[in-house]
TrEMBL record:
Keywords: Isomerase. One of its GO terms (molecular function) is 4-hydroxyproline epimerase activity. It comes from Rhizobium redzepovicii. The keyword RNA-binding does not apply. Pfam families: Pro_racemase. InterPro entries: Pro_racemase_fam (IPR008794). This is 4-hydroxyproline epimerase. It comes from the Bacteria.
Length: 332
């Protein structure tokens, strides 16, 4: 049997976003959190086939659009990438909105504004369109917060690190320069991947955060290494790690949200402030702390992230049962 998937390929500030516009599995009309669970249980082969080699690669990310369950949303999104089926993805949202608007897949109720149902909750988006192209996108992300500060963890080959656990749609270990880590300068991509793998493994025995409002969102699966900016217009620089060996080419949407929540939680970023976040390749997201928020017992923020994406092509992908590698592979 051959399955066909029509995809619109794009990138958000350098990070790939593959929007599955046709061929995705039909899911029951339920809230996106429940649809995510069904997808993971019954259809995760689709994610692996489209994200893993030979059709994808180590940093591949994407999305599948669905009709919304919530009446206050224009459409719903399921985020897929090499690391799994995420509750939320900022770069994925920016890329998905850009591709969906430009290719006519969705028609917003109000031009320049769109509401998306994600597994993590409703995400409001504004965008600027010129001549049929989306120039920029600003997503108003889910409430984000500093879950735990100054967590001590012993990392093989690095020694003891002090990290903050912060939530921006996914849980992150936020690392800043300190005695046993001098910063990003001089680190190669493979160095960052190796350190991140060791850090995440070590943290598994130390902490297991659970979202106060949704117990299905739990665990530290991402790391963000933060340092001084290189670009004069930036406030900070980062490397976001996810999956087995992926480094986000963008500054990371949920990562920037988690970083701002961490800074706010430590009294270093006020409501109304902006935070221009630089990626390893020099692309920038402009974050803003829009307001304070409560997440269960925690004090957090409502962040927004501004960035851009570009559509780079159409892609019809076949997944054929006759192919021994139909469901993809990863080299570990």
């Amino acid at each position: 049997m051959r399955n066909s998937f029509f995809c619109i390929d794009a990138h958000t500030c350098g990070n790939p976003v593959r929007l599955v516009a046709g061929g995705g599995p039909l899911l029951p009309h339920l809230p996106m959190g429940e649809r995510r669970e069904i997808f993971v249980r019954d259809h995760d082969w689709v994610r692996k086939a489209l994200m893993f080699e030979p059709r994808g690669h180590d940093i591949m990310s994407g999305s599948i659009i669905y009709p919304p369950y919530r009446e206050d949303c224009d459409f719903a999104v399921l985020f897929i990438e090499v690391s799994g089926c995420l509750p939320m993805c900022g770069a994925g949202t920016i890329g998905t909105v850009t591709a969906a608007i430009e290719e006519g897949l969705v028609k917003p109720r109000e031009p320049g504004r769109i509401a998306i149902e994600t597994p993590a909750g409703r995400v409001d988006v504004t965008y600027e369109e010129k001549g049929g192209y989306v120039d920029s996108v600003r997503l108003h992300n889910v409430a984000s917060y500093l879950h735990e500060a100054d967590v001590g963890v012993d990392v093989p080959g690095m020694g003891r690190l002090r990290v903050d656990i912060s939530y921006g749609g996914n849980y992150y270990a936020v690392v800043e320069p300190q005695e046993n880590w001098s910063g990003l300068d001089g680190m190669s991509a493979s160095d960052i991947v190796g350190c991140s793998q060791k850090l995440r493994s070590a943290l598994a025995d130390v902490c297991d955060p659970v979202h106060p409002d949704d117990a299905r969102i739990r665990g530290v699966h991402h790391a963000i290494w933060c340092d001084r900016p290189v670009n004069d217009v930036s406030d900070g620089r980062c490397a976001v790690f996810y999956g087995d060996k992926a480094i986000d080419r963008s500054p990371g949407g949920t990562g920037t949200s988690a970083r701002m929540a961490q800074l706010h939680g430590k009294g270093r970023l006020a409501v109304g402030s902006r935070y221009r976040h630089e990626s390893l390749i020099g692309t920038i997201f402009e974050g803003r702390v829009e307001a304070e928020a409560r997440i269960g017992p925690y004090r957090g923020i409502l962040p927004s992230i501004g960035g851009w994406a570009r559509v780079i092509g159409h892609n019809t992908i076949f997944v054929d049962d006759r192919d021994p590698l139909a469901h993809g592979f990863q080299i570990r």
